[in-house]
Specification:
It is a single chain. This protein is 76% helix and 1% strand. By secondary structure, the protein is mainly alpha-helical. Strands 1-2 form a two-stranded antiparallel sheet. A hairpin with a 7-residue loop joins strand 1 and strand 2. Helix 4 runs antiparallel to helix 8. The termini are far apart.
C-alpha cells in the first residue's frame, strides 16, 4: 500500500501540470484559425483571379477542343475530329515547320549575343551603367506593336536595309516581301531584344570567383580555354534558365509576325507561325473548337520540350551542391 500510494501521489503533480498545457493548446487553436482565415481573405483576390481567368478558361478550352464551336452556336461534341483534321491540314503542318525553324534559329542566336555582350559588360569600364540600360531597353519595347511597324518599314522595298545591302552588291530587295527572307526579319527582331537574358547572364558572371581565372592564367590557360572550362560550367544553371525561358517564349511568337506581315502571315505563309494560324482559325474563320485543339497541342509540345531540357540538364548543368 505505502509504495503504491507514494507513486500515485508523485504522479498527481505531473497530471496537474499537463492540464494547463492542454488548455493552453486549446486556447491557441482559435487564434490559429483566425490567422488562417485572415490569410485566405488576403489571398482571395488571387484565388478568384486564378479560378476565373486561368483555371476556368483552361477547362473550358479543353472542352471546346472536342467540340465544333464557332462562338455563336451551341458547341457540338465531335470527339477527336479536330485533332485528326489538324494533322491532315497542310497549313497546320506549315505553321509547325515555320515555328520550329524560328525557334531553332532565333533562340541560339539571341542567347549567344546576350552572353557575348554580358561578358563585355562584366568587365569594369567607364559608362557601364549606361551601356547596360541601353542594351536592355529593346527588351522593354520590342514586343510593342509600334516597333513591329518600324521593323516592317526598315525591311521593306527601298528602305534603309534594302539600300544598305544594295550598296554592297547584295540585291535581295525588301525582306518583308520576300518569302525566303521574311522569317529572318523576325529572327533579327527577336535577337535585337537580347537585353533580358543579357542581364541574367551578367548576374551569373558576377558570381564566378575571380580566383579561378587567376589560377587558370598561372597554369597558362588561354581565353578560350578559360571560357570553356571555367565560365561555361560556372554559369551553366543560368544558361539553362535562359535556354528554357527563351525557348518557351519563342514558341509563343505572335505580335511581331502578325504586324510585320501586315496581318496576312505571309507572303506565301512564310511567317505563318503556330499562334498566327491559331488566331486565323479561331477569330477569322470562327473555328474556336479547332483553335482550342491547336492551343492544347501547343501546350503539349512546350511541355515535351521542357521535359527534354530538364532531362538533359543532368548532363551539362553543374550546381554547387553537386560539387559538394
Amino acid at each position: 500500500m505505502g509504495p503504491a500510494v507514494t507513486l500515485v501521489e508523485d504522479s498527481l503533480p505531473t497530471a496537474r501540470k499537463t492540464r494547463p498545457a492542454a488548455s493552453a493548446t486549446r486556447g491557441r487553436r482559435p487564434g490559429r484559425r483566425r490567422e488562417n482565415l485572415a490569410g485566405y481573405l488576403f489571398m482571395s483576390p488571387w484565388i478568384a483571379g486564378f479560378l476565373l481567368l486561368t483555371a476556368g478558361p483552361m477547362v473550358a478550352s479543353l472542352y471546346f477542343a472536342f467540340t465544333d464551336y464557332n462562338l455563336f452556336n451551341t458547341p457540338k461534341w465531335v470527339g477527336f475530329d479536330n485533332f485528326t483534321q489538324m494533322f491532315d491540314d497542310p497549313r497546320w503542318q506549315r505553321s509547325v515547320e515555320v515555328t520550329a525553324k524560328y525557334v531553332v534559329i532565333g533562340t541560339p542566336l539571341k542567347l549567344l549575343l546576350a552572353l557575348g555582350v554580358a561578358m563585355l559588360l562584366a568587365q569594369s569600364r567607364r559608362g557601364q551603367a549606361f551601356y547596360r540600360a541601353a542594351f536592355y531597353a529593346p527588351s522593354l519595347i520590342g514586343a510593342s506593336v509600334s516597333v513591329g511597324f518600324v521593323w516592317r518599314s526598315l525591311f521593306s522595298d527601298g528602305a534603309i536595309v534594302d539600300r544598305s545591302q544594295s550598296f554592297f552588291g547584295w540585291h535581295v530587295g525588301g525582306w518583308v516581301g520576300n518569302a525566303d527572307w521574311v522569317l529572318y526579319c523576325l529572327v533579327a527582331l527577336t535577337v535585337w531584344q537580347f537585353g533580358a537574358p543579357m542581364v541574367i547572364f551578367l548576374a551569373g558572371l558576377k558570381q564566378v570567383p575571380r580566383e579561378l581565372y587567376e589560377a587558370a592564367e598561372m597554369d597558362g590557360a588561354g581565353p578560350l580555354r578559360r571560357f570553356w572550362n571555367i565560365t561555361l560550367p560556372m554559369i551553366s544553371p543560368v544558361l539553362f534558365f535562359n535556354v528554357l525561358l527563351e525557348t518557351i517564349h519563342s514558341f509563343q511568337i505572335f505580335g511581331s509576325a502578325y504586324v510585320v506581315s501586315n496581318s496576312t502571315c505571309g507572303p506565301a505563309d512564310a511567317t505563318l507561325v503556330y499562334t498566327c494560324y491559331l488566331y486565323q482559325q479561331g477569330f477569322q474563320n470562327a473555328r474556336m473548337g479547332f483553335a482550342a485543339a491547336m492551343a492544347w497541342m501547343l501546350l503539349l509540345a512546350v511541355a515535351l520540350v521542357t521535359a527534354v531540357l530538364f532531362w538533359s540538364q543532368k548532363k551539362w548543368v553543374h550546381y554547387e551542391e553537386d560539387a559538394r
